[in-house]
Backbone:
């Protein structure tokens, strides 16, 4: 609190959106001191009432700080869950609900971290590294991509065979005309 918003910005300026984060951190600290006796609340509702804290941050706090069996869904987890078929959904909330059903309680504390790391370094957005993935044999995306690649390759081979037959016909026609 002694740093103030400007002082805090100097310490976090390398982080994206540091201006709004600094403002929210100062507001959150004030709220924690005034409304929670300096303690971080242990409920989702109270956490989400803090400035700058949404469902994802609340879930991270509940899971990491308080050991609650919940999973925070960010962009990486959303992508990995949908691609692999582990927990499909069109919204973050639906993926979170599906993950909570799919992941056994004993793994929920670490699942968030494992899925984030998998999404950042293996199942990356633009060019997933399926060849390095240890679960590609279980992955819906890999199976679909492999099938698509196989179908594309089969179509190319088929086209080449047809093209080869066409080339043979053309060659025979030219030979006959030259005789």
Residues:
């Amino acid at each position: 609190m002694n740093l103030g918003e400007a002082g805090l910005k100097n310490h976090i300026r390398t982080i994206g959106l540091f201006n709004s984060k600094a403002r929210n951190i100062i507001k959150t600290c004030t709220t924690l001191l005034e409304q929670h006796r300096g303690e971080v609340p242990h409920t989702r509702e109270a956490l989400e009432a803090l400035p700058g804290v949404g469902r994802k941050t609340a879930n991270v706090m509940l899971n990491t700080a308080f050991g609650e069996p919940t999973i925070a869904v960010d962009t990486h987890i959303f992508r990995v869950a949908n691609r692999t078929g582990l927990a499909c959904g069109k919204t973050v909330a639906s993926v979170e609900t599906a993950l909570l059903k799919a992941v056994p309680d004993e793994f929920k504390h670490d699942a968030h971290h494992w899925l984030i790391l998998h999404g950042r370094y293996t199942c990356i957005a633009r060019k997933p590294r399926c060849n390095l993935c240890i679960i590609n044999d279980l992955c819906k995306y890999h199976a679909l991509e492999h099938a698509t690649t196989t179908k594309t390759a089969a179509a190319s081979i088929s086209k080449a065979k047809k093209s080869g037959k066409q080339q043979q016909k053309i060659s025979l026609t030219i030979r006959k005309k030259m005789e």
